[in-house]
Structure formats: structure tokens, C-alpha cells
Amino acid sequence: DAGVIQSPRHEVTEMGQEVTLRCKPISGHNSLFWYRQTMMRGLELLIYFNNNVPIDDSGMPEDRFSAKMPNASFSTLKIQPSEPRDSAVYFCASSRVGGLIYEGYTFGSGTRLTVV
Amino acid sequence: DQQVKQNSPSLSVQEGRISILNCDYTNSMFDYFLWYKKYPAEGPTFLISISSIKDKNEDGRFTVFLNKSAKHLSLHIVPSQPGDSAVYFCAATNFNKFYFGSGTKLNVKP
Fold it and tell me: Each residue of B50-70: pLDDT tens digit?
């Protein structure tokens, strides 16, 4: 099992540009989560999906952020237009609903986004 | 409004001594608590968990304690090793939604 795969690992973009982060969850996992890590707020949940359906997007900071999960093996997080304050590490995680909850999530290695 | 708080951003401990990382939460409905460890340039990895019906769970050098009346949990690492140096996040969950603290950076000095 390759784990949760995120791409790209690093992204540097100019303010105003569109940024798309990608995630491939673990096969068989039916929940997918997008988190953002910052120094001030730690790990913040942005949105999560169950069976490809968005369940809770209350953590999405504003309309510039959108997320999709077109199928069970792929999800994207898009920021348009990007701003310097969006600079952070973005993590994707997956889990099985009804699985062994004490295992929690499996996280990807993250995408470090820098908006200049 | 952070429901899970880690008030110590960093902790430094000598190798061989005990490391104690603390976490407080506000929601009495949380039913499971977990600790994650994160190395630089990697995603967080699961370390240990505890159900709300227990007050202690031990796994080798790692023990998690839960005090429900105080809404407090702690992670004890004994003995601490330099390889334990990492950022530790506590998390709490209900209904498959996890809330994370802001993390504590542990430095274990040789």
C-alpha cells in the first residue's frame, strides 16, 4: 500500500494565480479529509468527504477555496485566486468509516504552498 | 474556537528522562482521543489512542492518560530518546470528525 499520495510536494506561485492540490487516498478508504497546518492554528480541518460526498466544509476559509472528489481515488483542493496568507502546508488524510477508529487517519506527506 | 488546545508550543527533555505532553479539550462529547507524531517534511502518523471510557492506555514507552473531569489528557514517554524529537499533536473525535491541537515540539537532548 503506497499510503495517501499528495502532489505536488512543493508549490510556489504568485499572488492571484490558481493553485490545485491533488490527493489520492488509500484504496478502500471511504473518508477523505483536507487539513491546513499553520504555525498559529496548528492543523485545521478544511473539508471532509464520505463516499465522495462533501459532508462538512465549514472549515473552508472563504469562497476562494473549493474541493472536489470526482471518484473514490482522487480529490483536489483548489485556491483561486491565491493570496500570500494561504501559504501553509496542506495535508490530505483518509480513513475508513466504521473502521478501527483508534487508528484515526492516515495522512499524506503534505503540499507546502508558498504564495508570493 | 479551538476545541482542543496544546498550551505548550515546545518542550525540551534530556535523553532517558520522562517527557510529558499535555492537552486540554472543551467538548465533553468527544469519545476518542489520539496522539500523532510528526517529523519535518512528513505527514502526522498515529501514535497511541484512548477511548473515553478508559483513563489510561499504555504501549511500550508511551502512555496516554485521560482525566475526563478535568477534560485533560497527557502523553508520557519513558524513557525519552533522541528519535522521539518531533511535533506531537493531540486529537479528539466524535462522529469521525477529528479536532487537532496546535502541536508541541519535543526536543530530546542526547
Answer: 999 999 999 999 999 999 999
Closest Cβ opposite residue B96 in set A31, A41, A91? A31
- List of chain B residues whose C-beta atoms are within 8 Å of the C-beta of residue A43: 44, 89, 100, 102-103
pLDDT digits (tens, 9 = 90+) for A65-90: 999 999 999 999 999 999 999 999 99
Residues 6+ apart with CB under 8 A from B102: A40, A41, A42, A43, B2, B5, B6, B9, B89
Nearest CB partner across the interface for A109, out of B36, B43, B100: B43
What the block records as the C-alpha cell of A113 is: 504552498
- Name the grid cell of A46: 478544511
- DSSP structure class, residue B101: -
Looking at residue B55, its pLDDT comes to 95
Three-class SS of residue A70? strand
Expressed in angstroms, the distance from the first to the final Cα of chain B is: 38
User: Nearest C-alpha of chain B: how many angstroms from A70?
Assistant: 21
